Amino acid sequence: PSYPKIAGQHKDYLFVALKSYKTENLSTWGRSNGVMGGIAKQYSNNELKALSAYVGSLDTELKTVPQSKFR
Ligand code: HEM
Fold first, then answer.
1. What is the residue with the minimal CA distance to atom 36 of ligand 1?
2. 43 alpha carbon to ligand 1 midpoint, in Å?
3. What are the phi and psi torsion angles at 18 (to 5°)?
């Protein structure tokens, strides 16, 4: 349950998420996660873009779920 489902996620979102793992300790847009840092840092931004486009093109379980404004 602690692993995000990313197949079919918007590719721009995936790219920004992956790129942010290359920058740790920057609270505005960096992300700190040991595993994902190790993965993301191996790739150039162009490679992360290609990876994001591929993952974003996969079949997805993601869907938009309307929420009540007054929960
Ligand atoms: C090329 C391989 C991988 C890709 C493309 C990838 C991609 C991603 C992306 C895009 C996110 C952000 C999800 C979001 O914000 O919604 C993420 C987060 C995460 N990934 Fe990966 N991942 C890879 C490998 C792995 C591996 C091997 C593991 C574990 C062994 C892993 C564990 C996690 C975890 C735990 C998070 C959440 C981290 C957090 O809270 O910031 N990932 N991954």
1. 3
2. 14
3. -65, -45
